């Protein structure tokens, strides 16, 4: 408020759209919740439609706003998800290291992203649930080889323990392309919302904002 009263230019943040993709029950929502709140819900239900959250991230040289879009993994929503990929800066494709079928789906998810964004997007594959060591069905070597084959970044994480979650977002922040700037005279405190998938997805959500160090 003081800046406005003194005639100073309001703070300007760059905003980046992160879209989380992947099969059902791979842990997309849990990764977001661990990053946003540092929590893990063992009883979390499958996402229906699209969940939207935003967070301010403080880096060494700048402050940015992340818009996190959590998509449903059910097959019935697949035809609608490209609408949400179309203007994203980053696509995080999540699979479950204990479910080989979700690993086998990576190629089609990567193709979906490239069909919409071409090379103008950062793609990160996240192998989730590394805490399930004894149930692992996809080896680290297989994961790294697939990432090289698809020409994408790769990181292993655990939404349950928080392992590598902050590192995941930090690594992505360092790779972010230029994005649209938004002027925030008085940025709100936190942001959550839910958007139902439709043939013409024009989300209308309440906007609040969370902050992260």
TrEMBL record:
- GTP-binding found in the keyword field: yes
What keywords is this UniProt entry annotated with?
Answer: GTP-binding, Nucleotide-binding
Give start-end ranges for the coiled-coil region(s). Answer: none
Listed Gene3D superfamilies: P-loop containing nucleotide triphosphate hydrolases
Q: Which PROSITE patterns match?
A: RAB (PS51419), RAS (PS51421), RHO (PS51420)
* Chain residue ranges for the region called Disordered: 180-213
Q: Organism's domain of life?
A: Eukaryota
Q: Locate the compositionally biased regions of type Polar residues.
A: 180-205
Question: Nucleotide-binding: is it a keyword of this entry?
Answer: yes
Q: Which residues form the signal peptide?
A: none
GO MF annotation list = GTP binding; GTPase activity
- Supply the name of the protein: Rab6
Please report the organism this UniProt entry assigns to the protein: Blepharisma stoltei
